[in-house]
Amino acid sequence: MYRYGRYSGYRRRRRARRLRILAIALVVVILVGSLLYTTRAGNNILSNIGLRGASPQATPTSNIAAQPTSRPTTVTSPSPNNNVPPTAVVTPEATPTSQPKPTATSTPSKSPVETAKAYIANWEAGSYSDMYKLLSDESQKQYDRQYFVTRYQQIAAMATIQSVDASLNTSDAINAGNGNIIRFPFNVTIHTRLVGDIKEQNLLTLVKEDGVWKVQWGPNMIFKDLSGDNLIRMFPYSAPRGSIYDRKGRPLAIEGTIAQIGVVPGQIKNEKVLLQRLSQALGVSEDYIKSRYQGGQPDWFMPIRDLTKQQAAQLQKQVGDIPGVAFQERVGREYPQGPILAQVIGYVGAITAEDLKKPEYKDYSPTDVVGRAGLEAWGEPYLRGKPGGKLAVVTPDGEIVKVIKEVRAVPGDDIYLNIDLDLQIQAEQELSKGGYRGAIVAMNPNNGDILALVSEPSYDPNDFVVGISQKEWEALNRKSSGYPLINRATGSSYPMASTFKPISLAAALEAGIYKPTSMFYDPGYWNKLGENPPRRDWKPGGHGWISLESGLVQSCDIVFYEVGLALYKKRFDYLSEFAKKWWLGRSPDVDGVVNASGQVPGPGVPYPGWGPGDNVNLAIGQGALNVSPLQVAMVYSTIANGGTIYKPLLIDRIVAGDGSGKIIKKYKPTVLGRAPVSQETMDVIHRALKDVTSSQVGTAYYVFKDFPIPVAGKTGTGQQDEKLPFAWFAAYAPADKPSITVVALAENAGEGSVIAAPVVKNVLADYFNVNARTR
């Protein structure tokens, strides 16, 4: 039997124990329930047993930008001078310049991490529609698909976005809203064309809806400072294109002004008359002209087309009196010297859609210009510079709210040439005044500097800046035009003719088969190969007895037929291989221009076999031997300086365009090799070339007999079937201490001594500033 006191205490202990058990059970239930509700596995269990209901809609917090109540509209901003059409703040999507990344899933996941990763991956891939599928119901109610996709596309275009790289930080996730809201920090690098990389840290907010996690979206997830109706605007800073100058700093290609003709709608008094007269003057339809100014404000200048200065002056007279017609200028490429040095300088043109697909143009925009020919094309990486811009968040009225990033434009670098503009102009005039098609090259034989590089006929590169028609382009490429786009001085090859004879003489002396005093008999013909009719000398009746050295002075073909045959007998390829050592048959590799390699014929080149007749032809510079005028200038510069073969240098230096004067690249004299001759042989050649202009039997004596400065040179006449021959003259002066080499070629013009020698004489007279020109 229990006593009362003890029994009463026992009952109290039992009640306390039950309370403790209930409390523990309640805690366990709460913990298990929480685990089931907040984990992916738990959600699956609850859903399977029917205990998982709809989760409450998440409420945006201060970390989520305020959402606009309506879609932003495109805002326009008038030009500061109110004379040109406004520019839209939001522009069409730019052409993609990088390969899209693989598209991720577009289905929301029961894992917030998986949904977040999918959203980031789709953003990187540019899959905006798939991004939209991952948005929460609330976000999709607030922003429809078209608005969402269009906004991303327009911002990508406006901000010049090329690609996006983002990384999710899942370890620092922020939980909120009773486990129904989670925010992941992420780092994003937005690669843009104009302002480079933009790095931001942001938050990706997800909410749980019906057991899956979705993205709670706002504009601040594009750029963290973008919110509400505000817009993204890029203020582009153009990079002035670098200039091209001659050796004295005189401009050859610069950023200048381009004339424009246009219409100011509010000033039109008689639209019918305006359209008729403009259509006739410009050669375009009335509908096209009207389409160019339709929709413009009354006081806007609506451009119709660009013009050269000459075209503008002519049109001012034709249509300048019509009310509503106006002229103005814009910044653009200008070639102050017009056709002078055109094939070397080249020209710029508008970039094309095909260009923009190429890797080298990934940083270009559809409105850019690019170098299309000559130095403009070769120097594009230097001349273009680097455009910049200011990327900002703006209000619908255009007021700047926040500058995201600003990068100043870097001007293009300037290219300085070794060309002497004065000499270039005089040389071009020498060819053009005679109506010759051909080339002139002037070089410093002591370092390879190119002083003049002439190709005739020429063209005006300013025409390409304003745009040429298909008809005009076809005209430039017709045979009747003389193919003015071709750089004949460096990019075309011709028979070298008798200007090759110094090499043949040198080969004979170095081979030991003849001496300078070796005698030959020239009756005016030669038939030692049994040819019928026999080969003829240029001089009827021949030269009689003549030495090897004098054979070069008088350019006696019979002497060099003998040389060609003797060299063939010594070794059939001796002369061919000897000629190649003078840098013939391979490219001079001059930066900035087209380089012709030419051809030195020999066994198997250009056809199978190599007989004595082929070698005889080569000895007088005929047959299949082809060289560019620049290569001939290299040969005679090598003779002038005593045997050093210099690489021709068109460019002197490239200078930073930022005004610092820093030299980006300096071109220094480069020795390619040595002529394969002894000093004794070089002395013989030099003496003979002096006699060409100073001895009464020299082929250029009557051209240079009164010239006050001694000149060494050689005539050449390249024979053509049923056509006038190519006229050559190659020279250097002063003969005993040369400072310049000049080579002239006139296509199908006649004898070298009659046509080309006077041209070279006049160029030398201009160079030395002496009054001894041939009129």
TrEMBL record:
One term under GO cellular component: plasma membrane
Comp. bias (Low complexity): 68-98
Region: Disordered, residue numbers: 52-112
Any GO BP: response to antibiotic
Domain NTF2-like N-terminal transpeptidase residue range list: 112-229
Keywords annotated in UniProt: Cell inner membrane, Cell membrane, Cell shape, Cell wall biogenesis/degradation, Glycosyltransferase, Hydrolase, Membrane, Peptidoglycan synthesis, Protease, Transferase, Transmembrane, Transmembrane helix
EC top class named in words: transferase
GO MF entries: glycosyltransferase activity; penicillin binding; peptidoglycan L,D-transpeptidase activity; serine-type D-Ala-D-Ala carboxypeptidase activity
One Pfam family from the record: PBP_dimer
Matches recorded under PANTHER family: PEPTIDOGLYCAN D,D-TRANSPEPTIDASE (PTHR30627), PEPTIDOGLYCAN D,D-TRANSPEPTIDASE MRDA (PTHR30627:SF2)
Name by which UniProt lists this protein: Penicillin-binding protein 2
Species per Swiss-Prot/TrEMBL record: Thermobaculum terrenum (strain ATCC BAA-798 / CCMEE 7001 / YNP1)
Phylogenetic lineage: Bacteria, Bacillati, Chloroflexota, Chloroflexia, Candidatus Thermobaculales
